Amino acid sequence: MRLITLLAYGLLSGLQLPASVLAADVLQVRVDPAITYQTIDGFGASDAWQCQFVGKNWPLEKRERIADLLFSRELDAQGNPKGIGLSIWRCYISAGTAEQGEASDIVNPWRRGECFQNPDGSYDWSKQAGQQWFLKAARRRGVEKLLAFPNSPPVHLTRNGKGYAPKGETCLNICPGKLEDYAMFLVDVMQHFDQQGLHFDYLSPFNEPQWNWDDPGQEGTPALNVELYALVCYLSRELSQRKLSAQLVLGEAGTIGHALKVMDNDGRDDQARVFFSPESPFYVGALPNVARTISAHDYHSVWPLDKLVEYRHLLRGALTAVNPELGYWQSEYCILEGPNNEVGGGGKRDLGMDTALYIARIIHADMTVACAKSWQWWTALSQVDFKDGLVYLDDGSQGSSGRMGPETLSLMNDGVVRESKLLWTLGNYARFVRPGMVRVKCSIEPEQSYANGVLSSAYKGSGGDVTVVLVNLGQEEACCNLGFSQQVDVFTTSSTANLQKSRQNSGNIALPARAVGTCVLRLPLLQQSSAAK
Predict the structure, then answer these.
(1) 480 sits in which H/E element
(2) Under a CB-based contact definition with an 8 Å cutoff, are residues 212 and 165 in contact?
(3) Per residue in 208-221, pLDDT tens?
């Protein structure tokens, strides 16, 4: 068993600890709230693509249960969280391939989507009913921020009349002269939902433009930086003129490399410099309604472990060099890499702790090395045998499992809801690290291994309270001494617990092996402890 000593706030460094605490293997975890880093914007996930069916067709009781798991910040009778309390919900604004059906060429019906705009330019706001149900459910449960994102222009605006791009193209799949129409469509959507009391805080207007998206697997389009610059100019002007407050969050780069440097020299990379260096001809930082934030996706940058850290140091350095005020979002990830990683790649769903801890380590690196202001998982719901969901759906035909995949059409109407440990581990961050909190210095001595050590990060709220997240990657239980004699709330996710609350003596907090624990340190307790000394 390892013993961790947390010298919270640096106030207790003079505390006389028992000899048993001063063993050679004690890990000193020190929090210094005077040293601050990024302000947190939130933790999120997207509704693509399963919510379109679940939110529209599934029995209400199951929909409400799923919404509670994702959004709720309520506690049960024992004080345990009912859900993970996401603070950002990403809503997919789709292109109209669902109306095309098989003519869309997208074989998988789950990856088609309805479009609010009809080909004649009129609107049908009854479309995307499933997504709209989840939007309302998120808002009812207090989700602070809503984000809208498209993958393709509406099919009636594209050059090939499809939701995917012509073969081999790198340009935006849109008819000549229709770029402004596309911008108007997106702002019309923002304005409509504002009027419905469902304000979108953010619009992310393009997704992974570095890929060609010329295979009909889903909606998508490539785009050149110069085209994206023109689209942002149209969007910024229109949002400002209509006095809408939605902020444009740019990037959604396919990898962090495409955000920070020239990779392919094809006019689609180096996005941080292109869009946010004041010397760039495509600088957008002075435009209204543009967030000073660049977003990118973690794909192909998390394994092996030395690269996980190295790439994020490079990212942080590159963004600071471009513009010290530029924030960073990790805005999409699920496990695609493999099979030569700890969890055997993205194939085969895993409801257990192995995948959960694999992701917890990535979140830790993004928050502490890359200084991410937001961390967002890809899709909240999954009905496939893949590591891409927080909540999983199957038909229950095999007891603890069941049939999955696009061919299981019954899942469009009903099924079994299965929680993953990844869901609850994300909750160790999302439920307690809220928008507006600030990451503060948190260190461990001796330095810990990303392979099997204990990783820690700390976040300060506006009232001075501090949340410390501890990720125990090792095979041994850790005993955590928080350094003062008080009872504190600890929320643990392990093989046997889902954000399970315990009131523990801060001098003897048990963190199980292969687990994540969130310690909520109340400022009054710290002040009392300090005064007592």
Answers:
(1) strand 478-481
(2) yes
(3) 999 999 999 999 99
CATH of residue 510's domain is: 2.60.40.1180
In Å, how far are 89, 332, 333 from 383, measured between CA atoms?
Answer: 19, 18, 17
Percent helix, percent strand, percent coil in the chain, to nearest 5: 30, 25, 45
pTM surpassing 0.85? yes
Write out pLDDT tens, residues 79-125. Answer: 999 999 999 999 999 999 999 999 999 999 999 999 999 999 999 99
Strands 497-505, 487-494: parallel, antiparallel or unpaired by DSSP? antiparallel
Could you tell me if 34 and 46 lie in one domain? no
- Across the range 117-139, mean pLDDT stands at 98
Instruction: Record the tokens describing residue 529, joined without a space.
Output: 């402890």
For residue 299, give its domain range: 42-430
Tell whether 391 and 425 lie within a shared domain: yes
Q: Would you call the peptide bond into 18 cis, given omega within 30 degrees of 0 as the criterion?
A: no
182: number of Cβ within 10 Å:
23
Distance in angstroms (rounded) separating the CA atoms of residues 372 and 353: 24
What are the CA-CA distances from residue 314 to residues 131, 252, 309 (Å)?
37, 18, 9
